[in-house]
Every structure is written in C-alpha cells, then in structure tokens.
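User: Hi! I have a protein structure encoded as tokens and I'd like to know what sequence might fold into it. I'm fairly new to this, so please keep things simple.
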C-alpha cells in the first residue's frame, strides 16, 4: 500500500469516528438542590420572639403523621432541623405559656397551608387605636358644635 492510500483510509476513519461520536460539551454545568436544614421561627403578635418555646415536629408521609422531633426554640424564637430522608411534608407545633400555633408545610414548594397575613407591630396598632378614638371624638365635637349653633 502506498502512503497516499493509507492517509486516505485514516482520514475516512477519523471522519467516520467524528460523525459517530456523541456531542461533547467542555463547559457542561450541573445543578443539584439539597435542603440540608429547615428554619422554624416563632413569635408573638407584637413581634417578640417565642424564646425557649416547645417545638414538636411531625413528618407526614402518605397521609400518615409520625412524631419526628421534640425540642425548644433558641432565645430568638428560632429552631433548625434536618429534614428526614424521603419526607417532604411536615407539621410543626410551637407552644409557650398557653400560647400555641401550628403550621403544615412542604419542602417541595407545593403550598400545603395558606400563608399567614403580616401583622402590624404593636406600637402601630396602639397608634391606630388612638387615631380611631381621636377621630370619633372629633366627629362628636363637630356634631355637638353644629347643634349648639343651631339653637
């Protein structure tokens, strides 16, 4: 075989191999999510944290609830826990001194419970209450002054 024939065969083989080779990307990017910790935060109506409150966490799998953790919140009313493998739905119960609330949620992003409405801070609610009282008093004074002038 002469060298020209060998070069032609090598070129044909390399072209054939190139066409048969799967697509390769030198800059392939992979993304994986991993939820390693869930934060639970509990606070009172005025915004004060529920420090050292009792926390009970239940796992919910196939509609069956099972006790998972019993613990307490920190001084900021926060508690962290690691999700159980294979479970994405939880019910958390937080209680302190007779005050209690619970929330059911899913780690998959599906809404399990309705989001709670934001509550005004205590100082704002007190100020609004005084505003209502002053408004009613103002209306009463206006009406009584009109009544006095007409007499």
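Assistant: Happy to help. Inverse folding works backwards from shape to sequence: for each of the 151 positions I chose a residue that suits the local structure. Here it is:
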């Amino acid at each position: 075989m002469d060298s020209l024939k060998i070069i032609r065969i090598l070129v044909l083989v390399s072209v054939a191999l190139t066409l048969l080779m799967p697509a390769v990307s030198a800059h392939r990017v992979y993304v994986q999510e991993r939820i390693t910790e869930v934060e639970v935060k509990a606070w009172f109506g005025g915004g004060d944290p529920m420090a050292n409150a009792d926390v009970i966490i239940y796992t919910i799998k196939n509609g069956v609830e099972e006790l998972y953790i019993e613990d307490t919140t920190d001084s900021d009313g926060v508690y962290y826990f690691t999700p159980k493998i294979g479970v994405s739905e939880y019910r958390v119960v937080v209680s302190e001194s007779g005050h209690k609330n619970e929330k059911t949620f899913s780690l998959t992003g599906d809404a399990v419970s309705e989001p709670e409405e934001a509550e005004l801070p205590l100082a704002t609610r007190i100020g609004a209450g005084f505003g209502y009282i002053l408004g009613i008093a103002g209306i009463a004074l206006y009406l009584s002054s009109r009544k006095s002038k007409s007499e």
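A useful reference point when you look it over: The domain at 33-119 is CATH 2.60.40.1120 (Immunoglobulin-like). Feel free to ask if any position seems puzzling.
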